[in-house]
Every structure is written in C-alpha cells, then in structure tokens.
Amino acid sequence: MDLDAINQFRLLKEDLSIHKHDDRYWFKEINSVDDDPLGLQKVIDFHHEDLDWDATPDLEEVQKRINFGSFVQLNMYEDKVIGWSWTNPKCVTIDWKSFYQPLKSNELYIGGGFFTRKHRPFPNSAMVGYRQGFEHYLNYHKKNTLYLYSDNWNRASAMLCYRCGLTEYNFLNENSNIRST
C-alpha cells in the first residue's frame, strides 16, 4: 500500500459530531450472502451505475470477506437499500479477506462505505448515513476507537469524515507488525 496516496483517519467515540438522529436510516447486519442476496446485489449494481471501478465485489467475493471475519452492513433508508459499509473488529484489512495489521480490543476498522449517488433520498443523505453509521458500528462492535483510510482522490469521503469528527491520524505507520499483502 502506498501510504502517501491515502488519508488516514481516527475517530474516538467521544469525538463524534453532534447529530440529530434520523430514524429513517438504519443498518442491516449481514452474516451471510443468504441473509439478503437481493439487497447485496442491489448495492453491487449501484456500484456499477455510480462508479467506474473494476474492483466491485460480486456475491461470491462478499461471502469470502464475511468468511474471513469482516462484516458487511447494508445502509438502509426507510425500506430501501442505499449502500453498504464494511467493518472488521480484529484487524486492518486492505481487501476485507486478508490480514494487514492487528487492532487492539477497543479498536474497529471500517471502510468500503458506499452510498449511491443516483438513488439517494436527498442531497445530504450520505452525511447523515456516515455519521449515524459510525455511531452504529462503534456501538454494535462495542468499541471506542474507529480507524479508516480513504484514497487521496476521494475528497468527498474525506470531507464527510472531517464533518463527523474524525481527525487525521497515521494509524498504519504506528504499528511495527505491519505485514505487506
């Protein structure tokens, strides 16, 4: 991984930005592709509509990630799937199916957050989804520190992170146990 091509972030639970909760947003935990194959496929289709990116996983790849110990959550708005997010409570993983760097027991790694642009419910919906998602994932996994990184070109993701209370923090540089993938 080229550490110069990414922005690294940390969020301490107590630093979450103030937020008025929107009950229309919720997060569906997926433990197997069989839990909601149509919802997962819908997000995969959204990826292809919204992004020109060859690395979008298919359902088989999603199951491999789950089998590794990564979690996928469908981002829901009312009764509609609008995206997904990935978490891993045990390690930083670049591809969601292989080890990169260990985490401490109070830490969570999150990434791969995606909210469809073409089917979003309103213009600021990704901000609400990011903010409520961070709180949900910290509570769901019972953690108080969250890490993520985004590619330097992904300015929208970085801006959402800053607005939610994340700060720049080079967590990938601090650990001497990093193994290359």
Describe the structure.
- The protein has 5 helices and 9 strands, in the order ββααβββββαβαβα.
- It is α+β, with helices and mostly antiparallel strands.
- Strands 2-3-4-7-8-1-9 form a 7-stranded mixed sheet, sandwiched between helices. The protein has a two-stranded antiparallel sheet with strand order 5-6.
- α3 crosses α4.
- 30% of the residues are buried.
Topology:
Elements: E1 6-12, E2 25-30, H1 37-50, H2 59-68, E3 71-77, E4 80-88, E5 91-92, E6 101-102, E7 107-115, H3 125-141, E8 145-151, H4 155-164, E9 167-168, H5 171-174
Parallel strand pairs: 7-8
Antiparallel strand pairs: 1-8, 1-9, 2-3, 3-4, 4-7, 5-6
* Beta-strand percentage range: 25-35%
Radius of gyration: 15 Å
State mean pLDDT (0 to 100 scale): 90
Give the total of beta strands.
Answer: 9
Q: Element order, helices and strands?
A: EEHHEEEEEHEHEH
Q: Which stretches of 5+ consecutive residues score pLDDT under 50?
A: 174-181
Summarize the structure.
With 181 residues, the protein is α+β, with helices and mostly antiparallel strands.
